[in-house]
Write a structure and sequence with these properties.
CATH topology of the largest domain: 60s Ribosomal Protein L30, Chain: A
CATH class of the largest domain: Alpha Beta
CATH architecture of the largest domain: 2-Layer Sandwich
Helix content: 40-55%
Largest sheet: 5 strands, mixed
Oligomer: single chain
CATH superfamily of the largest domain: OmpA-like domain
Number of helices: 11
Structural class: alpha+beta
Distance between the termini: 85 Å
Length: 305
Amino acid sequence: MRRRKGRGSRANHERWLVSYADFITLLFAFFVVLYASSQVDKRKVGRLALAIQVAFQEMGVFEASTTAVPIDRAEPMPFNTVQAIENKEHTAALARIASRPEGSLGGWAENGDLAKLQSELETALAAEIKRKEVAMHREPDGLVISLREVGFFESGTAQIKPASVDAFDQIAGLLREREYRLRIEGHTDDAPIHTSQFPSNWELSTARATEMVRLLIVRDGYSPARLSAAGYAEYHPVASNRSVEGRGMNRRVDIVILGQAAPEAAAAAGQDQSRVAAPAADTKPSPAVAMKPAILSNAVGKLQH
């Protein structure tokens, strides 16, 4: 018998249309996403800017701005207006910075003078530094001279040792030649103290700092306007209190040379400068632009509602 040949299946030449339609659909969705992401909701951005400005005004932490803030929450300041104001203030701030070249070298002069002063102190106090009774280092506030208890105070007292008066006078003599302000800081270790004179380390650290201030005023003729005193007890250590050496380093009185002239010296310098060149008439200082940190939590919360 002859077998019947199976009827062959016809090839579908239009299957490519399915893949092509899928490709076109995905491509359309891709461009829609691109278009949507490129559009900025200016109303929402304006509300964000308004919420930030209102939050700063309600906090009252910073100085009030001279720019009026719209309080209409329904129609807040447009984003392009906010951006124009920010650009204008930034440009004005740069212009004010660039227009004062005469004071640009002040920081370098102070740093150079402090470095010279540190070198002179290290030479004059070489013996005390070698015995680890005095230490010096630089901090952002200025030059710090640490007078450790082992060389300048008896344990548990605020009176300076007679043997250390000469070293203290050398420090006072070198600092008297400059008009820098001084902050005297008293520090202790974490060992508690409870005596009739000092109930805690707070009283001891403060008493040592004020004793140094008293000596500078009474014995060395310092102006009180140059000086300030503070007691920090054991809460600002420079070493670990777990070792004898570390506790000895923490029991100290720091003389912080702030690197700024005393108020009366600055006033005298201003008077001398005013005698040389009088200010021009009708000259008004431009308002300062305060840089404000962005506190966005309240602002974003307001936008969500």
